[in-house]
Amino acid sequence: MTTTDLHNDAPTESATDSLLAAVIYNPVKVNLDDLKAAVAAEQTAAGWPETLWFETSEEDPGQGPARKAIEARASVIIVAGGDGTVRAVAEEVAGTECALALLPSGTGNLLARNLKLTLDDAAHSLHTAFTGKDKAIDVCRIKIERADRSVDKHVYLVMAGLGLDAKMLANTDDGLKAKAGWLAYVKALVAVGKDDSELNFRYRLDGKPEQSLRAHTVMIGNCGSLPASIELIPDAALDDGAFDVVVMKPKGLGGWIQILSKVLWENGVLSRTALGRKLRTGDVDALNYATGKELILRLHRPEEIELDGDGYGTAVALKTWVEPGSLTVRVPSDAE
Fold it and tell me: What family classification does the UniProt entry report for this protein (predicted)?
């Protein structure tokens, strides 16, 4: 008998020995008793050991609990919370061997929408967490420079934005958002829609020569679907190793009509079929697209910035780049 035979005959680690789930939950978003009962049922059915539990707080929206879960050797972290909780946990999980499973909760659920996960079926989401398959997606990292020259680092999974969307989020009433969901953004949109000020900035995309530009809104998207079935960036993909830059430059009412026609009709309707995609036009004057892997942008004055639907104060400059396939997410086993 050879040494190879001896090695092959040795006892092997049970497939379930390395499996351990952790739940990171926002206590405001979940019914903890119901969630624990549902997790226990799925955990038992899958033959997994006792699940670990970590609670977020206003002071720590997810990074600290994620670090504790990773240190405890969790193989999958189930995030029960809104977009902010998902983003905070992903900040620590990206680049590790741990997988992220989503239990959508909140008004946006932006990453779940773009992964085409169920949004209102907790049982299905938990079943996916314990029995689904892994999918590698890109993560965008960003350094934000503030007016006092301090720099902070974050990740975003869906979009970063300057201009209209960031101002809208800064003007959204949190109490109304909790009661009325996305209707709260309508009130904020009306408030900022009267603001015709422009962003004035210099930028460098993928090391190309620096350029100057004036625009109403700039968005950097890792993926392109928004609530209400709005396809802002129909060609964006979570696993293409690049982000898409959207620049809005409307001039009066006609410019906004161009943007709405492009986003709601071409992106939202025509892009759903092969024939429709052939009928799509290119960029219009009010709406331009670009694709890249690194963007450096410096603003003429401090401007509001948002990450994955949450306001992040004001920025005077940013550097953002893509880390391809650096986050593992759990999707249904029958997903394409």
Answer: Belongs to the diacylglycerol/lipid kinase family.
